[in-house]
Every structure is written in structure tokens, then in C-alpha cells.
Amino acid sequence: QWYQRRVRGSPTHSNLKLNTSEGGEVLASSVILSFNSPVIDHMTTSLHMTSVDMLEFGEAAVRLFVDAAYSGTAEGITRDTFRDINKIASVFEMAWLVEKCAEYFTEVVESVKTPSYADLLYLFEEAGFVFEKLKIKDFLNLTIKKIEMLRWKQEFIDEYLKNADRLSTQKLDMVIELAGTEVHCVVQTLTNQLSELLKVQGSSLPLSHEYLLDNSDLYLCTKSDKVLFQQLFDVLRGLPDEKMRWTLDLYRKSTEQSLASAAVSEVNQSSSTKIPRCNTITNLYHNLDMTMTFDQLLDWVNSSEEVTNLLMAIEAVWAWNRYRHDHGYQAQHFRVDTSVLHKKLPGIAERRGWPLLPPEFHRYTYKVKLHDSKNQDITPDIWQNYSVTNGEECRYVVVDCVDILCTKPLSLLSKDAKLTFRFKHPSVTSCNLPGECGFILKTVPSNAALWNLKLCTEEEDYQNEPVHFHDSIRAESMHVFFRRVWCGMAYFLPISWLGWLQTGDVAKRNEWEKKFVIQGTSRFEVLYELDAPSKT
After folding, report:
1. Is 487 left (phi over 0), alpha (psi -120 to 50) or beta?
2. For a tag on the chain, would you pick the N or C end, based on fewer CB atoms within 10 A?
3. From CA 105, how far away is CA 110, in angstroms rounded?
4. Quick check: 350 pLDDT over 80?
């Protein structure tokens, strides 16, 4: 405390200026902040910066951050300052303060003893902000458990969706996650709202409602409340004619599984119940917490539900390493310890049941940045440890995109485009259809994400196309990546973990795209898992 009082505000010791929003500034000791934050240590010690822009944070939050660094306590956190101080602590890697913020949020959650929309809305919004900006889901899980414990799920969803048209798709996804298997909670709210809305002549279906219905598992509603399910579609019959095709598709998607499940149940009460088709390619545009240390990264890969196969785990290491190197981290903060990687990753793969990659991966070059800032080619170690050799049985095949030699893959994914693949699934033993067996992936540009890819499954999608589709092809069995050819060498370039690229920030996209220096046969490829376990 004495040191804090004497040093804070001293013109001699306060040699670092922190620029805040609205033109404010806070002076602090670079020594004390560097002791607490490796990021600030890098900025001041290596880059010799005397001023740090913290322009998205208010002066009060920045002062609280400085006070915490000086005092070693976080006593000043309030509901009003939590959001900023938690983000500052995460961005500047002040680990102990991040932990204190988590403790504060848990205390706020535990303090809510009776249902209160204002209290639960605060928790839901703050948890959503942390998940969106920092990709930490713990706070959201705590909030959902609290709402469930209070038995107030339906009431909260009713109130929260009153302004559904103002919610981002990420917020709508949070509502779907809150509903969980109780999809009828969302259906009840939407049915009530639409029944009132469509009384007004000429009203159309709000995009938010369409998104919620498209992405909710309505089959669960048919199981829990068939009457409500029918009421929903009775209301949807009042939509304009141009939405009738969508309504029919939605109904068919919702009831197909019900019919299939009933048929399977009569034949066999085992676990072979059909899983509903999901046409979205799931591995694209995930975010990755670039503030993690290398050990934390591997621990996260070991437990994260977002990492679904061995290739995604390897991609995460590459993206983390490349991002931290390119964004000015000190050498020790972006270094990949290959001995630790090769010791831990095989065990993680075995524990999570990830099969080895196919032998084609031996032809791809895989480089990471080490502490001397030079590329190190760790290709032999990577693929020797994590892929099968020729002749060994493998659950994967690599499928090349045949019709597009792409020079700007990220730009392509952010506009309307099609990617065509020739591929005959082993389950197709004979086929007399015109053209070749295969599939088409279609980009779905969106304001909510930089890109999206969906598997085309309808007959009209394949008219006048060189390939035709078989229903045995599943989107959940696909993992999309990009192969770059440079100077006769094939470079493996992951695109799974580019969530840090903002939708409207073309400059960031172009900066990343420079890494995709193209020659000849550079193209998208699909890692396809044969006989893949069903993924929900």
C-alpha cells in the first residue's frame, strides 16, 4: 500500500501513458505493469513503447486496471466495470486478474436467489460478451445453469426475444443453447409472436425468427409438444407465398427424423436412430484465444468441444503460432515446443478417439515459427506421428476441389461461389446416373460471419453440373482446408481458426490472404471421414 501511494501518479515513476476512450489518459509505471502483464512487458521492453492505446476502454476501467496492478487486489470491480476490466485483463494477459474477474462473476451468479429478468439479463449479456470477444464459454454455462435452477427458462426467453430483430446471430445461438433439449420454449415464444405479427397484412417473417427456426432442432418439439408443433406450422401458413417453399422444407426437415426414428424403433431399439442431417460445414471460422500460452493451448485442445479431429488440433497450433508471431509477441510467447507437442498430442488424439490422417498429408509442408523468428519445417515429425503410411488402413480420404484453382481463398468464401468435388462414397456400389458421383459446397455470405459453407443436397442444386449427389455424403464428415503450391512444394494452410478476422475488416483479410501465395494447383480440399461416428 505504501509503495502504491508513493509511486502511483508520480511524474518520475509514471513513465507509461495509457490512452483511453474520449481522449483520456492514465499514467503508470511501466515496471509495475510489465511485472503483471507479459504483453505490456513486450511493448515496453522489446518495442520501447512509452504510450499504449486502450481506446476501447473508459478511463475508469483503465485506472482500475492500473490500481489492481499496483495493489495486487481487485476490490474495485463492480457490475458496471466488470466487462471492461475482464477484457483488459485477458487482452494484456494478467492471469491473476482474469481469475479474480471469474470469481467476481461467479459471486454475482450465486447472489441471484429469485427470478429477476434484470439480474439474469445482466448475466446473460455479460456472459455473451465474454464468449463473443474472448471465446470463453464458462460464464455462459454458469448463467444457463442458474436460469435452469430457477426454473425460469421459458419466462426469460419470452422476454429476451421481444427484441429478437435487434439480436445478432451469436445472441440467437445463445438462446438456442439456453433452450437445449427444451426446444418448445423457443417454439412457444415464436408462435405467440408470429401469430400477432401476421395479423398485420403484408407482414413478412423476421430474419431473426427464420434463423431460430432454421437452427433449432424442431424434431425435439414434436416429441415434447406435438400440439405446439402443429400450432407453429398453422401460423406459418399465413406467411407470404414466397415463404411457402421455406415452410415446407422446414416441416419436412422436422418430421423426416420423426418418421425415420419411428421406423428404426420398430425394427431395433438400439442406438442406430437416424441423426438429422446438418448441411453446414462445421470446421470453418472458429475463434481461437490467442492469449493462451502454449501449454494452455494444448490443454484447451484436450478438452474443447470445438476441436473435433486431429487436423483441427494441428491447425490450432499453426494458427496460434502464426498469429502471435505476426502480432509482435516476444519470442518466448509464440514459441512452439515441438518436444512437448509430440509428447502430448498423440495422447490427446488417443483419448478423444481421433483417427490418424491419411498418407497424402506426407506431401504437405508444415512450418512453424520458433524463438529465433525463423521458419522451422517440422513436416517429417508432424506427419510421421499423426498420419498413416501407404498401405495402412485409414478412416479418411482427401478429396480435391476439381473446378476452381483459387488465388484468394478467403475472398472467395466471402461471396457467392460453388466448390465442386468428385467423390464416390464406398457405400455406393453401383450408379447409373449421368455425370460423376460427387458433391457441391456452396458459400453462404453473411453479415454474421466472414464465411460459411453448406453441402448442396437438393436435386435442383445439381442440374447442369458435372457431378450428381448421393444421400450417403454427409457434411458432418467433412473438414475443409486449403493447399497452397509454391516453388513446387505443397503447403498445408488451415482456415479453421480465423475467427479473429472481423466481417467488415477487409484489410485484415487481405493481410492474412498474403500468406496464400498461389501457384498452379492451389485449391480447396476436403478431409472426408469414412464411416464417421454420428456427431450431434
Report:
1. left
2. C
3. 9
4. yes
